[in-house]
Amino acid sequence: MSQFWSNLVHTLTPYVPGEQPKVTNLIKLNTNENPYPPSPKALAAIRAQTGDALKLYPDPNAEVLKQSIADYHQVNLNQVFVGNGSDEVLAHAFQALLKQDKPLLFPDITYSFYPVYCGLYEMDYQTIPLTEQFEINIEDYGQDSGAIIFPNPNAPTGRLLNLEAIELLLKAHSNKVVVVDEAYIDFGGESAIALVNQYANLLVIQTLSKSRSLAGMRVGFAIGQAPLIEGLERVKNSFNSYPLDRLAIYGAKAAFEDEEYFQACCQKIITTRNHLTQTLEALGFSVIPSAANFVFATHPNYSAEKIAASLREKSIIVRYFKQARVDQYLRITIGTDLENTALCDALNQIIR
Amino acid sequence: MSQFWSNLVHTLTPYVPGEQPKVTNLIKLNTNENPYPPSPKALAAIRAQTGDALKLYPDPNAEVLKQSIADYHQVNLNQVFVGNGSDEVLAHAFQALLKQDKPLLFPDITYSFYPVYCGLYEMDYQTIPLTEQFEINIEDYGQDSGAIIFPNPNAPTGRLLNLEAIELLLKAHSNKVVVVDEAYIDFGGESAIALVNQYANLLVIQTLSKSRSLAGMRVGFAIGQAPLIEGLERVKNSFNSYPLDRLAIYGAKAAFEDEEYFQACCQKIITTRNHLTQTLEALGFSVIPSAANFVFATHPNYSAEKIAASLREKSIIVRYFKQARVDQYLRITIGTDLENTALCDALNQIIR
Question: What is the pTM of this model?
Answer without folding.
Answer: 0.97
